[in-house]
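Q: What does the assembled structure look like for these inputs?
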Amino acid sequence: MRLTRYLVPTLKEDPKEAEIVSHNYLVRGGFIRKVAAGIYDFLPLGLRVVKKIENIVREEMDRAGALEILMPAVIPAELWQESGRWDLYGKELLRFKDRHDRDFCLGPTHEEVVTDIVRREVRSYKQLPINLYQIQTKFRDEPRPRFGLMRGREFIMKDAYSFDADWDGLDRSYQAMYEAYTRIFKRCGLEFRVVEADTGNIGGTDSHEFMVLAETGEDRIVSCPGCGYAANVERADFKTDYPLSDMEMMPLEKVHTPSQRTIEEVSKFLKTSPKKMIKTLIYSTDKGEVMVLVRGDYDVNEVKVRNIIGANWIELADEETIEKITGAPVGFAGPVGLKFDKILIDKSIVNIRNGITGANEEDYHYVNVNPGRDFPIIEEKVVNIRMPVEGDRCPKCGTPLEFYRGIEVGHIFKLGTKYSESMNATFLDKDGKEKLFIMGCYGIGVTRVASAAIEQNHDEKGIIWPISIAPFEVILLPTNWDKEEVRSVAEKIYGELLQKSVEVVIDDRGERAGFKFKDADLIGYPFKIVVGEKGLEKGIVEIKSRKGDIAVEVKIDNAVEKIIDLIDKERKKYLPE
Ligand code: ATP
Ligand code: MG
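A:
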Protein backbone atom coordinates (compact mmCIF):
# COMPACT_ATOMS: atom_id res chain seq x y z
CA MET A 1 0.00 0.00 0.00
CA ARG A 2 1.22 3.46 -0.90
CA LEU A 3 0.62 6.09 1.74
CA THR A 4 -0.07 8.70 -0.96
CA ARG A 5 -3.01 6.56 -2.08
CA TYR A 6 -4.13 5.61 1.41
CA LEU A 7 -6.31 7.31 4.02
CA VAL A 8 -4.32 7.70 7.23
CA PRO A 9 -5.37 11.00 8.77
CA THR A 10 -2.95 11.19 11.71
CA LEU A 11 -3.28 14.06 14.17
CA LYS A 12 -0.64 16.03 16.06
CA GLU A 13 -2.85 17.02 18.96
CA ASP A 14 -4.29 14.77 21.63
CA PRO A 15 -8.04 14.46 21.11
CA LYS A 16 -9.79 16.24 23.97
CA GLU A 17 -12.18 13.46 24.88
CA ALA A 18 -9.51 10.75 25.07
CA GLU A 19 -8.94 9.78 28.70
CA ILE A 20 -6.87 6.66 28.06
CA VAL A 21 -3.94 5.87 25.82
CA SER A 22 -5.71 3.45 23.48
CA HIS A 23 -8.45 5.94 22.73
CA ASN A 24 -5.91 8.69 22.12
CA TYR A 25 -3.71 6.65 19.78
CA LEU A 26 -6.61 5.11 17.86
CA VAL A 27 -7.86 8.59 17.02
CA ARG A 28 -4.48 10.24 16.53
CA GLY A 29 -3.22 7.33 14.45
CA GLY A 30 -6.17 7.66 12.07
CA PHE A 31 -7.71 4.30 12.93
CA ILE A 32 -11.13 5.49 14.05
CA ARG A 33 -13.31 8.58 14.11
CA LYS A 34 -16.21 9.37 16.36
CA VAL A 35 -19.65 9.71 14.81
CA ALA A 36 -21.67 9.96 18.02
CA ALA A 37 -21.07 8.96 21.66
CA GLY A 38 -19.83 5.35 21.59
CA ILE A 39 -20.29 5.09 17.83
CA TYR A 40 -17.29 5.10 15.48
CA ASP A 41 -16.14 4.92 11.89
CA PHE A 42 -13.38 2.46 11.23
CA LEU A 43 -10.96 3.98 8.74
CA PRO A 44 -8.77 1.69 6.60
CA LEU A 45 -6.08 1.07 9.23
CA GLY A 46 -8.64 0.49 11.97
CA LEU A 47 -10.60 -1.94 9.88
CA ARG A 48 -7.45 -3.91 9.05
CA VAL A 49 -6.79 -4.38 12.78
CA VAL A 50 -10.38 -5.47 13.38
CA LYS A 51 -10.19 -7.96 10.50
CA LYS A 52 -6.97 -9.42 11.86
CA ILE A 53 -8.57 -9.98 15.25
CA GLU A 54 -11.67 -11.42 13.62
CA ASN A 55 -9.58 -13.85 11.62
CA ILE A 56 -7.79 -15.14 14.69
CA VAL A 57 -11.12 -15.54 16.44
CA ARG A 58 -12.62 -17.28 13.41
CA GLU A 59 -9.72 -19.69 13.01
CA GLU A 60 -9.84 -20.77 16.62
CA MET A 61 -13.62 -21.04 16.74
CA ASP A 62 -13.56 -23.19 13.60
CA ARG A 63 -10.75 -25.28 15.04
CA ALA A 64 -12.92 -25.88 18.12
CA GLY A 65 -15.70 -27.16 15.88
CA ALA A 66 -18.05 -24.18 16.12
CA LEU A 67 -20.08 -23.21 13.03
CA GLU A 68 -20.19 -19.65 11.78
CA ILE A 69 -23.58 -18.12 11.07
CA LEU A 70 -24.91 -14.59 10.85
CA MET A 71 -28.01 -13.49 12.70
CA PRO A 72 -29.88 -10.23 12.18
CA ALA A 73 -28.99 -7.14 14.17
CA VAL A 74 -32.67 -6.15 14.17
CA ILE A 75 -34.72 -8.48 16.34
CA PRO A 76 -38.52 -8.66 16.66
CA ALA A 77 -39.79 -8.02 20.19
CA GLU A 78 -41.72 -11.32 20.25
CA LEU A 79 -38.54 -13.34 20.72
CA TRP A 80 -37.45 -11.21 23.63
CA GLN A 81 -40.92 -11.34 25.10
CA GLU A 82 -40.80 -15.12 25.01
CA SER A 83 -37.65 -15.21 27.11
CA GLY A 84 -39.01 -12.47 29.37
CA ARG A 85 -36.07 -10.18 28.71
CA TRP A 86 -38.09 -7.56 26.83
CA ASP A 87 -39.24 -6.25 30.21
CA LEU A 88 -36.12 -7.00 32.20
CA TYR A 89 -33.26 -5.73 30.08
CA GLY A 90 -33.60 -2.06 30.90
CA LYS A 91 -32.40 0.96 28.98
CA GLU A 92 -29.37 -0.65 27.35
CA LEU A 93 -31.78 -2.33 24.96
CA LEU A 94 -32.49 0.05 22.08
CA ARG A 95 -36.14 -0.47 21.18
CA PHE A 96 -37.98 0.97 18.22
CA LYS A 97 -41.00 0.45 15.99
CA ASP A 98 -41.26 -0.26 12.29
CA ARG A 99 -43.77 1.40 9.94
CA HIS A 100 -46.45 -1.10 10.99
CA ASP A 101 -46.00 -0.09 14.60
CA ARG A 102 -44.39 -3.43 15.49
CA ASP A 103 -41.75 -3.51 18.22
CA PHE A 104 -38.15 -4.34 17.50
CA CYS A 105 -34.79 -4.00 19.20
CA LEU A 106 -31.18 -3.81 18.12
CA GLY A 107 -29.52 -6.98 19.38
CA PRO A 108 -27.19 -6.49 22.35
CA THR A 109 -26.71 -10.29 22.53
CA HIS A 110 -28.40 -13.16 20.69
CA GLU A 111 -29.53 -15.96 23.00
CA GLU A 112 -33.15 -15.64 21.88
CA VAL A 113 -32.43 -15.60 18.16
CA VAL A 114 -30.07 -18.56 18.27
CA THR A 115 -32.39 -20.58 20.50
CA ASP A 116 -35.12 -19.94 17.96
CA ILE A 117 -32.90 -21.27 15.17
CA VAL A 118 -31.98 -24.40 17.05
CA ARG A 119 -35.48 -25.24 18.26
CA ARG A 120 -36.64 -25.11 14.64
CA GLU A 121 -33.72 -26.82 12.94
CA VAL A 122 -32.33 -29.33 15.42
CA ARG A 123 -34.67 -32.16 16.36
CA SER A 124 -32.57 -35.12 17.48
CA TYR A 125 -29.86 -35.86 20.03
CA LYS A 126 -27.91 -37.24 17.07
CA GLN A 127 -27.35 -33.65 15.87
CA LEU A 128 -25.84 -32.63 19.21
CA PRO A 129 -23.62 -31.09 20.41
CA ILE A 130 -23.72 -28.03 18.20
CA ASN A 131 -22.05 -24.67 18.68
CA LEU A 132 -23.12 -21.71 16.52
CA TYR A 133 -21.21 -18.47 16.44
CA GLN A 134 -21.20 -15.14 14.65
CA ILE A 135 -19.05 -12.06 14.42
CA GLN A 136 -21.42 -9.16 14.33
CA THR A 137 -22.15 -5.58 15.23
CA LYS A 138 -23.94 -5.29 18.56
CA PHE A 139 -25.73 -2.33 20.05
CA ARG A 140 -26.01 -1.55 23.75
CA ASP A 141 -27.17 1.85 24.86
CA GLU A 142 -24.52 2.04 27.58
CA PRO A 143 -25.14 4.70 30.23
CA ARG A 144 -21.53 5.86 30.00
CA PRO A 145 -19.93 5.06 26.67
CA ARG A 146 -16.27 6.04 26.93
CA PHE A 147 -12.67 5.21 26.28
CA GLY A 148 -13.16 4.86 22.52
CA LEU A 149 -13.65 1.28 21.43
CA MET A 150 -13.34 0.06 25.01
CA ARG A 151 -16.92 0.81 25.94
CA GLY A 152 -18.83 1.65 22.83
CA ARG A 153 -22.53 1.59 22.18
CA GLU A 154 -22.06 0.01 18.78
CA PHE A 155 -19.27 -2.57 18.82
CA ILE A 156 -18.24 -5.83 17.21
CA MET A 157 -18.67 -9.00 19.22
CA LYS A 158 -18.05 -12.63 18.54
CA ASP A 159 -20.85 -14.50 20.24
CA ALA A 160 -21.15 -18.28 20.34
CA TYR A 161 -23.84 -20.53 21.75
CA SER A 162 -23.49 -24.23 22.50
CA PHE A 163 -26.34 -26.73 22.67
CA ASP A 164 -25.87 -30.08 24.37
CA ALA A 165 -28.03 -33.06 25.23
CA ASP A 166 -26.83 -33.24 28.84
CA TRP A 167 -24.80 -31.43 31.49
CA ASP A 168 -21.62 -33.43 30.89
CA GLY A 169 -21.84 -32.35 27.28
CA LEU A 170 -22.09 -28.72 28.40
CA ASP A 171 -18.96 -29.19 30.51
CA ARG A 172 -17.10 -30.40 27.42
CA SER A 173 -18.41 -27.60 25.19
CA TYR A 174 -17.47 -25.06 27.87
CA GLN A 175 -13.99 -26.49 28.22
CA ALA A 176 -13.48 -26.36 24.45
CA MET A 177 -14.38 -22.65 24.47
CA TYR A 178 -12.15 -22.01 27.48
CA GLU A 179 -9.24 -23.45 25.52
CA ALA A 180 -10.15 -21.66 22.29
CA TYR A 181 -10.31 -18.34 24.14
CA THR A 182 -6.94 -18.98 25.73
CA ARG A 183 -5.43 -19.53 22.29
CA ILE A 184 -7.19 -16.51 20.80
CA PHE A 185 -5.94 -14.06 23.41
CA LYS A 186 -2.42 -15.48 23.30
CA ARG A 187 -2.41 -15.08 19.54
CA CYS A 188 -3.54 -11.47 19.95
CA GLY A 189 -0.47 -10.88 22.12
CA LEU A 190 -2.42 -10.13 25.30
CA GLU A 191 -1.33 -10.77 28.84
CA PHE A 192 -4.49 -11.96 30.54
CA ARG A 193 -5.93 -13.80 33.50
CA VAL A 194 -8.97 -16.05 33.57
CA VAL A 195 -11.13 -15.29 36.59
CA GLU A 196 -14.30 -16.66 38.12
CA ALA A 197 -17.18 -14.37 37.30
CA ASP A 198 -20.57 -13.64 38.69
CA THR A 199 -23.30 -15.90 37.31
CA GLY A 200 -25.98 -13.55 38.52
CA ASN A 201 -29.54 -14.67 38.76
CA ILE A 202 -29.26 -16.71 35.58
CA GLY A 203 -28.40 -19.45 37.99
CA GLY A 204 -25.70 -21.03 35.87
CA THR A 205 -22.97 -22.80 37.75
CA ASP A 206 -19.85 -21.66 35.99
CA SER A 207 -18.72 -18.48 34.40
CA HIS A 208 -15.27 -17.14 33.62
CA GLU A 209 -14.05 -13.81 32.38
CA PHE A 210 -10.87 -13.30 30.40
CA MET A 211 -9.25 -10.20 31.81
CA VAL A 212 -6.46 -8.27 30.17
CA LEU A 213 -4.33 -6.82 32.94
CA ALA A 214 -4.12 -3.04 32.63
CA GLU A 215 -4.18 -0.09 35.00
CA THR A 216 -6.98 1.48 33.00
CA GLY A 217 -9.24 -1.58 33.26
CA GLU A 218 -12.74 -0.93 34.54
CA ASP A 219 -12.94 -4.29 36.33
CA ARG A 220 -11.15 -5.23 39.51
CA ILE A 221 -9.96 -8.75 40.10
CA VAL A 222 -8.36 -10.61 42.98
CA SER A 223 -5.91 -13.39 42.56
CA CYS A 224 -4.14 -15.68 45.00
CA PRO A 225 -0.37 -16.04 44.62
CA GLY A 226 -0.63 -19.19 46.75
CA CYS A 227 -3.07 -21.43 44.89
CA GLY A 228 -4.03 -19.54 41.74
CA TYR A 229 -7.61 -18.74 42.80
CA ALA A 230 -8.74 -15.73 40.78
CA ALA A 231 -12.06 -13.95 40.62
CA ASN A 232 -13.77 -10.75 39.70
CA VAL A 233 -14.15 -8.75 42.94
CA GLU A 234 -17.91 -8.88 42.42
CA ARG A 235 -17.78 -12.62 42.69
CA ALA A 236 -14.76 -13.08 44.96
CA ASP A 237 -14.95 -14.95 48.21
CA PHE A 238 -12.42 -14.22 50.93
CA LYS A 239 -11.54 -14.89 54.54
CA THR A 240 -11.18 -12.21 57.18
CA ASP A 241 -11.23 -12.14 60.96
CA TYR A 242 -13.19 -9.53 62.81
CA PRO A 243 -11.71 -9.87 66.31
CA LEU A 244 -14.06 -9.25 69.21
CA SER A 245 -13.02 -6.21 71.19
CA ASP A 246 -12.82 -6.59 74.97
CA MET A 247 -14.06 -3.03 75.38
CA GLU A 248 -17.02 -2.78 77.73
CA MET A 249 -20.42 -1.97 76.27
CA MET A 250 -21.38 1.61 77.06
CA PRO A 251 -24.91 2.95 77.30
CA LEU A 252 -26.56 3.92 74.02
CA GLU A 253 -26.66 7.67 73.51
CA LYS A 254 -28.19 9.98 70.93
CA VAL A 255 -25.92 12.85 69.84
CA HIS A 256 -26.49 16.00 67.80
CA THR A 257 -24.66 15.86 64.46
CA PRO A 258 -25.89 18.89 62.53
CA SER A 259 -25.61 18.41 58.74
CA GLN A 260 -23.11 15.56 59.18
CA ARG A 261 -24.24 12.91 56.72
CA THR A 262 -21.42 10.97 55.14
CA ILE A 263 -19.20 8.44 56.87
CA GLU A 264 -16.27 10.85 56.54
CA GLU A 265 -18.18 13.82 57.92
CA VAL A 266 -19.63 11.96 60.90
CA SER A 267 -16.45 10.13 61.86
CA LYS A 268 -14.50 13.37 61.67
CA PHE A 269 -17.13 15.28 63.63
CA LEU A 270 -17.24 12.64 66.37
CA LYS A 271 -13.44 12.19 66.24
CA THR A 272 -13.61 8.49 65.60
CA SER A 273 -12.71 6.07 62.83
CA PRO A 274 -14.94 4.89 59.95
CA LYS A 275 -14.31 1.40 61.33
CA LYS A 276 -16.66 2.26 64.16
CA MET A 277 -19.45 3.31 61.91
CA ILE A 278 -22.34 1.09 60.94
CA LYS A 279 -23.04 2.21 57.40
CA THR A 280 -26.72 1.79 56.60
CA LEU A 281 -27.70 1.75 52.94
CA ILE A 282 -31.12 1.34 51.44
CA TYR A 283 -31.44 -0.15 47.97
CA SER A 284 -34.37 -0.31 45.61
CA THR A 285 -34.71 -3.50 43.59
CA ASP A 286 -37.35 -5.27 41.53
CA LYS A 287 -37.91 -7.37 44.66
CA GLY A 288 -38.59 -4.32 46.81
CA GLU A 289 -36.40 -2.28 49.14
CA VAL A 290 -33.61 -3.85 51.14
CA MET A 291 -31.45 -2.39 53.89
CA VAL A 292 -27.77 -3.28 53.99
CA LEU A 293 -25.43 -2.78 56.96
CA VAL A 294 -21.68 -2.72 56.40
CA ARG A 295 -18.74 -1.32 58.36
CA GLY A 296 -17.99 2.31 57.51
CA ASP A 297 -14.62 1.63 55.88
CA TYR A 298 -16.00 -0.98 53.45
CA ASP A 299 -18.01 -0.88 50.23
CA VAL A 300 -21.11 -2.97 49.62
CA ASN A 301 -20.90 -5.57 46.86
CA GLU A 302 -24.14 -4.76 45.08
CA VAL A 303 -23.88 -7.77 42.81
CA LYS A 304 -23.89 -10.08 45.82
CA VAL A 305 -26.81 -8.24 47.38
CA ARG A 306 -28.74 -8.58 44.15
CA ASN A 307 -27.98 -12.29 43.94
CA ILE A 308 -28.95 -12.98 47.54
CA ILE A 309 -32.35 -11.42 47.16
CA GLY A 310 -32.79 -12.81 43.63
CA ALA A 311 -33.35 -9.42 42.03
CA ASN A 312 -32.74 -8.45 38.42
CA TRP A 313 -31.69 -4.92 39.15
CA ILE A 314 -30.52 -2.94 42.14
CA GLU A 315 -29.82 0.72 42.76
CA LEU A 316 -29.45 3.02 45.75
CA ALA A 317 -32.89 4.17 46.85
CA ASP A 318 -33.90 7.74 46.13
CA GLU A 319 -34.37 10.37 48.85
CA GLU A 320 -38.11 9.93 48.98
CA THR A 321 -37.90 6.18 49.57
CA ILE A 322 -35.26 6.62 52.26
CA GLU A 323 -37.34 9.19 54.03
CA LYS A 324 -40.39 6.94 53.88
CA ILE A 325 -38.53 4.04 55.44
CA THR A 326 -36.40 5.84 58.05
CA GLY A 327 -38.45 8.95 58.70
CA ALA A 328 -35.31 11.01 58.21
CA PRO A 329 -33.52 12.57 55.24
CA VAL A 330 -30.55 10.86 53.58
CA GLY A 331 -27.52 10.50 55.85
CA PHE A 332 -29.21 9.62 59.13
CA ALA A 333 -30.36 6.04 58.60
CA GLY A 334 -29.56 3.32 61.11
CA PRO A 335 -30.85 -0.03 62.33
CA VAL A 336 -31.60 0.99 65.93
CA GLY A 337 -35.33 0.99 66.61
CA LEU A 338 -36.18 0.70 62.93
CA LYS A 339 -39.10 -1.52 62.02
CA PHE A 340 -37.91 -2.82 58.68
CA ASP A 341 -37.11 -6.47 58.42
CA LYS A 342 -35.73 -6.81 54.89
CA ILE A 343 -32.18 -6.38 56.05
CA LEU A 344 -28.79 -7.86 55.23
CA ILE A 345 -25.97 -7.55 57.74
CA ASP A 346 -22.39 -7.81 56.61
CA LYS A 347 -20.14 -9.94 58.82
CA SER A 348 -18.00 -6.89 59.51
CA ILE A 349 -20.81 -5.44 61.65
CA VAL A 350 -21.30 -8.21 64.18
CA ASN A 351 -18.27 -7.58 66.38
CA ILE A 352 -18.41 -3.79 66.40
CA ARG A 353 -18.34 -2.46 69.96
CA ASN A 354 -19.71 0.95 70.85
CA GLY A 355 -20.24 1.87 67.23
CA ILE A 356 -22.02 4.78 65.59
CA THR A 357 -25.01 4.87 63.33
CA GLY A 358 -27.76 7.21 62.15
CA ALA A 359 -30.66 7.76 64.54
CA ASN A 360 -33.37 7.95 61.85
CA GLU A 361 -33.84 11.56 62.79
CA GLU A 362 -32.47 14.61 61.02
CA ASP A 363 -29.14 15.80 62.48
CA TYR A 364 -28.84 12.97 65.01
CA HIS A 365 -26.70 9.86 65.35
CA TYR A 366 -26.46 7.16 67.97
CA VAL A 367 -23.14 6.43 69.64
CA ASN A 368 -22.21 3.37 71.69
CA VAL A 369 -24.30 1.19 69.45
CA ASN A 370 -23.81 -2.50 70.16
CA PRO A 371 -25.12 -4.98 67.61
CA GLY A 372 -27.21 -7.66 69.29
CA ARG A 373 -28.01 -5.37 72.18
CA ASP A 374 -29.33 -2.30 70.35
CA PHE A 375 -30.66 -4.01 67.25
CA PRO A 376 -31.15 -7.70 66.51
CA ILE A 377 -28.47 -9.77 64.80
CA ILE A 378 -30.41 -12.58 63.18
CA GLU A 379 -28.11 -15.39 62.12
CA GLU A 380 -29.57 -15.93 58.65
CA LYS A 381 -29.33 -12.22 57.80
CA VAL A 382 -25.58 -12.16 58.39
CA VAL A 383 -23.73 -12.51 55.10
CA ASN A 384 -20.49 -11.62 53.38
CA ILE A 385 -21.58 -8.75 51.14
CA ARG A 386 -18.71 -6.31 51.13
CA MET A 387 -16.05 -5.77 48.51
CA PRO A 388 -12.72 -7.41 49.33
CA VAL A 389 -9.83 -5.14 50.30
CA GLU A 390 -6.06 -5.41 50.64
CA GLY A 391 -5.36 -7.80 53.50
CA ASP A 392 -8.28 -10.15 52.89
CA ARG A 393 -7.23 -13.74 52.42
CA CYS A 394 -7.84 -16.43 49.79
CA PRO A 395 -10.99 -18.45 50.51
CA LYS A 396 -9.20 -21.65 49.49
CA CYS A 397 -5.71 -21.46 50.96
CA GLY A 398 -5.64 -18.38 53.19
CA THR A 399 -2.83 -16.52 51.40
CA PRO A 400 -3.35 -12.75 51.23
CA LEU A 401 -5.07 -11.86 47.96
CA GLU A 402 -3.52 -9.65 45.31
CA PHE A 403 -5.54 -6.98 43.50
CA TYR A 404 -5.38 -6.07 39.81
CA ARG A 405 -7.29 -4.05 37.30
CA GLY A 406 -8.54 -5.79 34.22
CA ILE A 407 -10.27 -5.24 30.91
CA GLU A 408 -12.89 -7.90 30.23
CA VAL A 409 -12.24 -9.09 26.69
CA GLY A 410 -14.11 -12.38 26.88
CA HIS A 411 -16.79 -14.02 28.94
CA ILE A 412 -17.92 -17.66 28.94
CA PHE A 413 -21.01 -18.81 30.70
CA LYS A 414 -22.90 -22.02 31.43
CA LEU A 415 -26.50 -21.04 30.82
CA GLY A 416 -28.14 -24.41 31.38
CA THR A 417 -31.82 -24.35 30.46
CA LYS A 418 -32.64 -20.70 31.08
CA TYR A 419 -33.49 -20.00 27.44
CA SER A 420 -34.49 -23.47 26.29
CA GLU A 421 -37.03 -23.56 29.10
CA SER A 422 -38.57 -20.14 28.60
CA MET A 423 -38.60 -20.59 24.84
CA ASN A 424 -39.59 -24.24 24.91
CA ALA A 425 -36.63 -25.46 22.87
CA THR A 426 -36.48 -29.23 22.93
CA PHE A 427 -35.04 -32.20 21.07
CA LEU A 428 -35.80 -35.90 21.01
CA ASP A 429 -33.39 -37.82 23.19
CA LYS A 430 -32.18 -41.43 22.86
CA ASP A 431 -35.13 -42.66 24.90
CA GLY A 432 -37.58 -40.91 22.55
CA LYS A 433 -38.43 -38.23 25.12
CA GLU A 434 -38.55 -34.46 24.55
CA LYS A 435 -35.72 -32.79 26.48
CA LEU A 436 -34.56 -29.22 26.92
CA PHE A 437 -31.30 -28.19 25.30
CA ILE A 438 -28.50 -27.49 27.77
CA MET A 439 -26.88 -24.25 26.66
CA GLY A 440 -23.69 -22.25 27.05
CA CYS A 441 -22.83 -18.79 25.72
CA TYR A 442 -19.46 -17.31 24.92
CA GLY A 443 -18.59 -13.72 23.98
CA ILE A 444 -15.50 -11.83 22.84
CA GLY A 445 -15.37 -8.08 22.41
CA VAL A 446 -13.51 -7.94 19.10
CA THR A 447 -13.20 -4.16 18.97
CA ARG A 448 -12.41 -4.01 22.70
CA VAL A 449 -9.49 -6.40 22.05
CA ALA A 450 -7.93 -3.74 19.83
CA SER A 451 -8.09 -1.19 22.65
CA ALA A 452 -6.86 -3.66 25.24
CA ALA A 453 -3.89 -4.59 23.06
CA ILE A 454 -2.89 -0.92 22.88
CA GLU A 455 -3.25 -0.43 26.63
CA GLN A 456 -0.67 -3.18 27.06
CA ASN A 457 1.57 -2.39 24.11
CA HIS A 458 2.56 1.24 23.71
CA ASP A 459 5.11 3.88 24.62
CA GLU A 460 5.15 7.68 24.63
CA LYS A 461 5.48 7.74 20.85
CA GLY A 462 2.57 5.51 19.99
CA ILE A 463 1.32 1.99 19.56
CA ILE A 464 3.54 -1.10 19.49
CA TRP A 465 1.22 -3.61 17.82
CA PRO A 466 1.76 -7.30 18.38
CA ILE A 467 2.51 -8.40 14.81
CA SER A 468 -0.48 -10.75 14.76
CA ILE A 469 -2.95 -7.86 14.85
CA ALA A 470 -0.88 -5.03 13.36
CA PRO A 471 -2.51 -3.25 10.43
CA PHE A 472 0.66 -3.86 8.38
CA GLU A 473 3.79 -5.78 9.27
CA VAL A 474 6.39 -3.41 7.90
CA ILE A 475 6.73 0.13 6.62
CA LEU A 476 9.27 1.17 4.03
CA LEU A 477 10.52 4.53 4.99
CA PRO A 478 12.50 6.36 2.32
CA THR A 479 13.90 9.40 4.11
CA ASN A 480 14.05 11.58 1.02
CA TRP A 481 11.55 10.79 -1.68
CA ASP A 482 12.96 13.47 -3.98
CA LYS A 483 16.17 11.59 -4.49
CA GLU A 484 15.94 9.27 -7.46
CA GLU A 485 18.28 6.68 -5.95
CA VAL A 486 16.42 6.49 -2.66
CA ARG A 487 13.18 6.17 -4.52
CA SER A 488 14.33 3.41 -6.83
CA VAL A 489 15.83 1.27 -4.04
CA ALA A 490 12.69 1.70 -1.94
CA GLU A 491 10.45 0.84 -4.89
CA LYS A 492 12.50 -2.27 -5.65
CA ILE A 493 12.28 -3.60 -2.09
CA TYR A 494 8.59 -2.68 -1.96
CA GLY A 495 7.86 -4.63 -5.14
CA GLU A 496 9.70 -7.71 -3.91
CA LEU A 497 7.95 -7.67 -0.53
CA LEU A 498 4.57 -7.44 -2.24
CA GLN A 499 5.56 -10.41 -4.40
CA LYS A 500 6.32 -12.39 -1.23
CA SER A 501 2.94 -11.42 0.26
CA VAL A 502 4.46 -9.38 3.06
CA GLU A 503 2.00 -6.82 4.41
CA VAL A 504 3.94 -3.71 3.57
CA VAL A 505 3.27 -0.01 3.20
CA ILE A 506 5.61 2.45 1.57
CA ASP A 507 5.74 6.03 2.77
CA ASP A 508 6.00 7.63 -0.65
CA ARG A 509 4.99 11.05 0.63
CA GLY A 510 7.29 13.97 0.03
CA GLU A 511 7.43 14.76 3.74
CA ARG A 512 10.44 15.31 6.00
CA ALA A 513 12.01 12.16 7.44
CA GLY A 514 11.22 13.25 11.01
CA PHE A 515 7.56 13.61 10.19
CA LYS A 516 7.46 10.16 8.61
CA PHE A 517 9.18 8.57 11.61
CA LYS A 518 6.69 10.16 13.98
CA ASP A 519 3.75 8.83 12.02
CA ALA A 520 5.26 5.37 11.75
CA ASP A 521 5.90 5.21 15.49
CA LEU A 522 2.42 6.48 16.32
CA ILE A 523 0.75 3.91 14.07
CA GLY A 524 3.03 1.20 15.42
CA TYR A 525 4.10 -0.92 12.45
CA PRO A 526 6.17 -3.75 13.96
CA PHE A 527 9.10 -3.15 11.54
CA LYS A 528 10.57 -0.27 9.55
CA ILE A 529 12.98 -0.44 6.67
CA VAL A 530 14.74 2.91 6.44
CA VAL A 531 16.15 3.78 3.04
CA GLY A 532 18.39 6.84 3.31
CA GLU A 533 21.01 8.59 1.23
CA LYS A 534 23.84 7.97 3.66
CA GLY A 535 23.09 4.27 3.90
CA LEU A 536 22.89 3.90 0.18
CA GLU A 537 26.42 5.32 -0.13
CA LYS A 538 27.52 2.30 1.94
CA GLY A 539 25.12 0.03 0.05
CA ILE A 540 22.94 -0.63 3.09
CA VAL A 541 19.45 -0.04 4.44
CA GLU A 542 18.41 -0.12 8.09
CA ILE A 543 15.87 -2.47 9.65
CA LYS A 544 14.36 -1.49 12.98
CA SER A 545 11.71 -3.07 15.16
CA ARG A 546 9.10 -0.87 16.79
CA LYS A 547 9.73 -2.68 20.07
CA GLY A 548 13.27 -1.39 19.93
CA ASP A 549 15.00 -4.74 20.29
CA ILE A 550 16.26 -4.86 16.72
CA ALA A 551 18.24 -2.27 14.75
CA VAL A 552 20.43 -3.71 12.02
CA GLU A 553 22.09 -2.52 8.85
CA VAL A 554 21.78 -4.92 5.95
CA LYS A 555 23.06 -4.90 2.38
CA ILE A 556 20.42 -3.69 -0.04
CA ASP A 557 20.25 -7.07 -1.73
CA ASN A 558 19.74 -8.89 1.57
CA ALA A 559 17.03 -6.63 2.89
CA VAL A 560 14.06 -8.67 1.66
CA GLU A 561 15.39 -11.96 2.94
CA LYS A 562 16.30 -10.45 6.30
CA ILE A 563 12.96 -8.76 6.91
CA ILE A 564 11.04 -11.91 5.97
CA ASP A 565 13.13 -13.87 8.43
CA LEU A 566 12.49 -11.32 11.20
CA ILE A 567 8.78 -11.18 10.48
CA ASP A 568 8.53 -14.97 10.53
CA LYS A 569 10.25 -15.14 13.90
CA GLU A 570 8.01 -12.45 15.29
CA ARG A 571 4.83 -14.12 14.02
CA LYS A 572 5.83 -17.39 15.66
CA LYS A 573 6.01 -15.73 19.07
CA TYR A 574 2.24 -15.34 19.06
CA LEU A 575 1.39 -18.88 18.11
CA PRO A 576 0.61 -21.02 21.14
CA GLU A 577 2.50 -24.37 21.39
P1 ATP B 1 -19.03 -5.17 30.69
O1 ATP B 1 -19.07 -5.75 32.07
O2 ATP B 1 -17.68 -4.66 30.29
O3 ATP B 1 -20.13 -4.19 30.42
P2 ATP B 1 -20.60 -7.33 29.79
O4 ATP B 1 -20.44 -8.24 30.93
O5 ATP B 1 -21.81 -6.52 29.66
O6 ATP B 1 -19.33 -6.36 29.70
P3 ATP B 1 -20.91 -9.51 27.92
O7 ATP B 1 -22.38 -9.43 27.86
O8 ATP B 1 -20.28 -10.62 28.65
O9 ATP B 1 -20.33 -8.11 28.43
O10 ATP B 1 -20.37 -9.38 26.43
C1 ATP B 1 -19.30 -10.17 25.90
C2 ATP B 1 -18.09 -9.32 25.59
O11 ATP B 1 -18.41 -8.19 24.78
C3 ATP B 1 -17.44 -8.71 26.81
O12 ATP B 1 -16.58 -9.64 27.43
C4 ATP B 1 -16.69 -7.53 26.23
O13 ATP B 1 -15.43 -7.93 25.76
C5 ATP B 1 -17.54 -7.11 25.05
N1 ATP B 1 -18.33 -5.90 25.37
C6 ATP B 1 -19.40 -5.81 26.18
N2 ATP B 1 -19.87 -4.56 26.23
C7 ATP B 1 -19.07 -3.83 25.41
C8 ATP B 1 -19.05 -2.45 25.01
N3 ATP B 1 -19.95 -1.59 25.47
N4 ATP B 1 -18.09 -2.04 24.15
C9 ATP B 1 -17.18 -2.91 23.66
N5 ATP B 1 -17.15 -4.22 24.00
C10 ATP B 1 -18.08 -4.68 24.85
MG1 MG C 1 -19.55 -10.06 31.15
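The chain is about 30% helix and 25% strand.
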